[in-house]
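hey
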């Protein structure tokens, strides 16, 4: 059963077992979905609730998966809370030990899956790793394959070394009807961090073997019955009081529907009476809002970069040399006009440049608290309001060049906060290679941990309108000496070098400017 809208109170009152897909629901790439950690911890604190993560990913051992879960901040989950096709398949092999114990299984899969099946399933696997056609022939066809080992089963899963010889071996082994055909899951693709890039999954490998053999496999992952049966054995769940949170209609939601459970495919809600703020679909649930379970795909990818409806504007003015005070007076009048005409457009930061490519420069950071509604308002005011136009013209007369960018805040940065007036600010701007923004976000979501100390992180932003693939990072330091000491201390931390190594290849151009606050800045 799927529904249109549901609240946290309704979920807690009517459901006892909570099932979650992982990537795309609890996290995306290496970034937790906003509110997900708090939501799971809330459920885990309630002893009447059961929580399980049902993943179709069999490329990791359970120990490796638990390390990832802990690293992402879901450390309250235990190994008994996680179920994967590899775990279900290993139990199947173990429970049928009369047939499989210490017997051979031909595995099209990863070394990690091999370790799970051998350690927990009691079988001996062969077939993993590279198997190229050139290992068998210099021609275009293979006419003979090694059949000296007769396996009890062919297991098909994700395999980066999938090849023609592997299809041929599997097909020939499966000519024997006594050889079982077992598949971890049939997800044709993996979720990935780059929209538009297809990452083939287990379903792609099993589809080829199925097409050649005509055999129908036993499938152990969602939405198939073996995983549901395993869950019933482990937790004795009541389907009518079970809810499945998933992002794939063909696996997660089909699994919930097939087993009589409530299915939710979450997205970020558009209809909210609250002001725009940093929250994803789970954050909205925790705040007592209803969530709309349709159009799920838009939430998971957007939350990878930003989960805020706030918009920011970077305004850069190159004022004429020697005219700084006159310029700031004119800008102050412009700011006053903006405050009167639209108070929700707020000047957060205002600086002049002390060191950088252009010395006679002012940079202002505006926050549009109503998002694009404020952007539209600003466009209208600059076009039709005589007071705004006059103040803007007075500023323009004192400038040689002006530009502005509409940006959003990265989800893993905090909102800009006030600093003591003696602070200096380091504005780092990066122009990235096209298509690398999500890679950048994935690396920095981890790297920001190394820069939290000394209250140095002010804000991180990426361009929406203007020059695209532009990123701004703003750092604050009590003095230039403190900046030097803090940066040296960061380099001494294990792991920071990996952030640099992962992000430098993504950069086309970068620069740093040292800024000091003007009298108008909230970030003094």
């Amino acid at each position: 059963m799927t529904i249109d809208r549901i609240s946290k109170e309704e979920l807690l009152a009517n459901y006892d077992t909570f099932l979650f897909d992982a990537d795309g629901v609890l996290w995306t790439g290496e970034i937790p979905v906003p509110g997900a950690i708090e939501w799971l911890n809330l459920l885990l604190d309630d002893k009447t609730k059961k929580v399980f993560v049902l993943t179709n990913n069999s490329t990791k051992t359970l120990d490796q998966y638990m390390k990832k879960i802990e690293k992402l901040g879901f450390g309250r989950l235990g190994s008994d809370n996680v179920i994967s096709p590899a775990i279900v398949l290993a139990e199947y092999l173990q429970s049928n030990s009369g047939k499989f114990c210490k017997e051979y299984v031909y595995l099209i899969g990863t070394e990690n899956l091999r370790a799970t099946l051998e350690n927990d399933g009691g079988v001996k696997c062969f077939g993993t790793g590279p198997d190229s056609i050139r290992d068998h022939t210099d021609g275009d066809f293979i006419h003979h394959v090694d059949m000296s080992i007769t396996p009890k089963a062919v297991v098909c899963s994700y395999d980066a070394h999938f090849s023609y010889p592997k299809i041929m071996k599997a097909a020939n082994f499966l000519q024997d009807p006594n050889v079982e055909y077992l598949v971890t899951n049939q997800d044709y693709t993996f979720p990935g961090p780059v929209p538009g890039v297809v990452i083939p999954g287990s379903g792609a490998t099993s589809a080829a073997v199925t097409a050649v053999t005509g055999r129908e496999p036993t499938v152990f992952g969602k939405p198939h019955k073996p995983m549901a049966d395993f869950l019933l054995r482990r937790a004795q769940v009541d389907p009518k009081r079970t809810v499945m949170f998933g992002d794939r209609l063909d696996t997660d939601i089909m699994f919930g529907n097939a087993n009589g459970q409530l299915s939710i495919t979450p997205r970020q809600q558009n209809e909210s009476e609250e002001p725009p703020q940093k929250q994803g679909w789970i954050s909205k649930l925790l705040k007592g809002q209803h969530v709309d379970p349709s159009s799920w795909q838009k939430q998971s990818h957007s939350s990878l970069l930003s989960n805020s409806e706030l918009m920011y504007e970077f305004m850069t003015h190159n004022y004429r040399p020697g005219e700084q005070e006159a310029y700031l007076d004119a800008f102050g009048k412009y700011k006053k006009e903006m405050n009167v005409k639209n108070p929700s457009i707020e000047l957060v930061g205002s600086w002049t440049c002390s060191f950088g490519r252009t010395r006679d420069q002012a940079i202002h950071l505006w926050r549009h608290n109503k998002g694009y509604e404020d952007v539209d308002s600003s466009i209208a005011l600059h076009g039709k309001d005589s007071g705004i136009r006059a103040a803007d013209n007075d500023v323009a007369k004192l400038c040689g060049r002006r530009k502005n960018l509409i940006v959003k805040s990265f989800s893993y940065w905090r909102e800009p906060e006030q600093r003591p007036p003696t602070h200096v600010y380091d504005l780092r701007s990066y122009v990235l290679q096209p298509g690398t923004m999500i890679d950048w976000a994935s690396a920095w979501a981890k790297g920001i941990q190394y820069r939290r100390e000394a209250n140095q992180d002010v804000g991180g932003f990426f361009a929406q309108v203007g020059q695209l693939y532009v990123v701004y990072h703003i750092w604050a330091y009590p003095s230039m000496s403190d900046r030097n000491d803090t940066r040296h201390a960061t380099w001494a931390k294990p792991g920071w070098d990996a952030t640099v190594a992962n992000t430098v290849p993504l950069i086309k151009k970068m620069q740093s400017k040292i800024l000091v606050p003007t009298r108008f800045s909230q970030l003094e």
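Residues 267-279, 293-303 have pLDDT under 50 and may be disordered. The first helix runs from residue 8 to 14.
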